[in-house]
Amino acid sequence: MNLENVISPTNVAILGASNRKGSVSNAVTLNILRSGFTGKVYPVNPSSDEVLGLKCYESILDIKNVIDLAVIITPSRVVPQVMEECGKKGVKGAVIISAGFKESGEEGKLLEEQVASIAKRYDVRLIGPNCVGIINTSPNISLNASFTKGMPRHGNIALVSQSGAICGAMLEYAKVKNIGFSKVFSLGNKADVNENDILEMLADDASTKVILMYIEDLVDGRRFIEIASDITGEKEEKKPILAMKVGESPVGAKAIVSHTGALAGSEEAYNAIFAQAGVLKVETLEELFDYAIAFAHQPIPVGEGTVVVSNAGGPAVIVADAAARYDLKLARLDESTISKLVNTLPKTASLINPIDIIGDADHIRYENTLRVALKDPNVNSCIVVVTPPVMLNVQAVAEAMTRINKEFPEKTILSSIMGLTGYEDALKILDENKIPQYAFPESAVRTLAAMQMYGSWVRRPRTGIRLFDVNREIVRNVFSKVRQEGRNYVYETEAMHVLEAYGFPVPKSMIAISEDECAKVAEGIGYPVVLKISSPDIVHKVDVGGVELNLRNAQEVREAFRRIMQNVKHKMANARIIGINVQEFLKNGKETIIGMKRDKQFGPLLMFGLGGIYVGIFKDVSFRLAPIKELSAYNMIESTKASKLLSGVRGEKPSDINSIVECLQRLSQLVTDFPEIQELDVNPLLVFEQEKGCKAVDARIVIS
Ligand code: ADP
Ligand code: MG
């Protein structure tokens, strides 16, 4: 339902308005009155006749005019009654600032539920309770219905914060940094309106260009991905979303048998959600604002390729290092650009990007160099680094940047005048001309890298969710047998059948129960083979000496059989033994792992990583929520270090990444089709050279 009335009301009632200095309700009332609100304000409080010079009503029902928004700051225990009256009055939205609800314990939780259900009954959209309030800086509304300090500067950034205290602190910080906001929402306990509702509204809000979020938890990850990816990548007017996520939701205490289960925590789930939504995750508030200013004031780079212009070698090196660290793509300058620069710059200048125009550079040299560099078709953005020697007119450099900024409106320009004081005039010019300035060049690099990343998200190829022809019947039968036997652990052989039914390539294999039979089966499969113990009681076969690899003839098979039986007897005397799994031995495969853990809150979380026995040590893994699109599967692989290994190092042939992508998509379909699958590991998934595919040689599944 529409939140427009909540954030852009004409008439506002303040329930619990108060004259008492120092109280929250007094602060909110003052803020509303002083913010220059363009509508009418109606204080309501049965114990006053007048609040801050305005007539005060005993009940909202006594007001004759229509009320769009009720701001509630009464004690929590009277909120249900107040809400009931708001409902009867027909208000469209309410912001409950009062605390004393869910956050305060069981009683408060019940009170909150009661209030929410009253609001629902009357179709009132509810923000809070236990929040700081909302702000709309638009000149034709100008409403500060919160208890933050004063009205923020008007701008094009929307702020959505779950924490009230952080919301207030961010607004204070922004004030110092001259950052302007379009709208501010403090969400509090999210009894009704949550981040997804706010995002839906901001998607089409013309006054908002960038969205900042401070998130403690998401109510619905799947919906968040849908709404946010629409905003960041699909809408006509795309908007970057920058999010800071704090706090960890508790991890389920259930026993975990898979690697995926052990590695897939709540942080991984959130990272997956942000990646799939095109949301840029930041780690600190400083980073959040560094990015926000740039996104709000400069264009998104239309391609990769940054040029750095500096007047000293040291900072140029810092920038080059930071570029490697944050993955900022520096531009390779065109031959013609370089020859133009050769003609104008001193001999000692360094023309390899980062360009060092050396210490005696004046503003004219800066301007000329920038003009030549930005004309280069390989350059889409630039960072101007200035270490100010006394003779440099920094203000003139700032003016030069301003001219360049106007000349190249489609190219991104960030400034790094290195120094904290003494350049106020220059900084003022940059601020007025919307050129973001960073005292440290690393911050500029990190910011621009984030902008490049967002640019590539916007330009990314669009793919869909692939569905394969699979055999659900087989899987259903396997699972019902597992259940009938009172288990939730699916035996390895059964798990392999499940994978096969979903089109995973698996090695030739067969269970044998005696030494003779093993030799016979091996003959049929063809040497070399692998023997593996098959037991419902043995989860990690290598650990008990239950795997023998690369057996080349009947003799070796027989010896291996005896060794395995002996090892198992020795290490797990009571293990029930089904037999020995004879498998074709696969050469030259790289070990990867793919898996899934069903997250309590968000559902199936897929994992990809470097597999084998070191998976738990290196933790080189990535996650996405299923179902995944084809591109997500590629990105899962791309975002691990293993991807470098798979793309071929030191003359090695590249691995068949496409076949992993396909397996990930098949896995996505499997875990979507069968919600009873709680945990699943394919470890290893052996991947061969390009065009030669991959094979799942070991699997583990737990169902509910
Ligand atoms: P575990 O229960 O110990 O995980 P696996 O079946 O995964 O047992 O086997 C352990 C290791 O042996 C694998 O990680 C892989 O390196 C190797 N391996 C297993 N099966 C094969 C096979 N068919 N071909 C080649 N190597 C294999
Ligand atoms: Mg294994």
Number of helices: 24
Relative helix content: 25-40%
Number of strand segments: 29
Quick check: average pLDDT?
A: 94
The stretches of 5 or more residues where confidence is low (pLDDT under 50) are none
CATH C-level label of the largest domain: Alpha Beta
The unique ligands bound to this protein are: adenosine-5'-diphosphate, magnesium ion
CATH superfamily of the largest domain: Succinyl-CoA synthetase domains
Strand order of the largest sheet: 9-8-11-10-12-13-14
Number of domains: 5
Class per helix and strand makeup: alpha/beta
Provide the β-strand percentage band: 15-25%
Sheet of most strands: 7 strands, mixed
Distance between the termini: 37 Å
Give me the Rg, rounded.
31 Å
Q: Which CATH architecture of the largest domain is right?
A: 3-Layer(aba) Sandwich
Write down the overall geometry: flat
Plain-language structure description:
It is built from 24 helices and 29 strands. The mean pLDDT is 94. Helix 17 packs antiparallel against helix 18. The chain has 704 residues and is of the alpha/beta class. It has five domains: 1-130, 3-Layer(aba) Sandwich (Rossmann fold), CATH 3.40.50; 152-292, Rossmann fold (3-Layer(aba) Sandwich); 298-459, Rossmann fold (3-Layer(aba) Sandwich), CATH 3.40.50; 508-584, ATP-grasp fold, A domain (Dna Ligase, domain 1); 590-703, ATP-grasp fold, B domain (D-amino Acid Aminotransferase, Chain A, domain 1, 2-Layer Sandwich), CATH 3.30.470. Strands 9-8-11-10-12-13-14 form a seven-stranded mixed sheet, sandwiched between helices. Strands 19, 24, 25, 26, 27, 28 and 29 form a seven-stranded antiparallel sheet that branches. The site of magnesium ion has 2 residues, from loops.
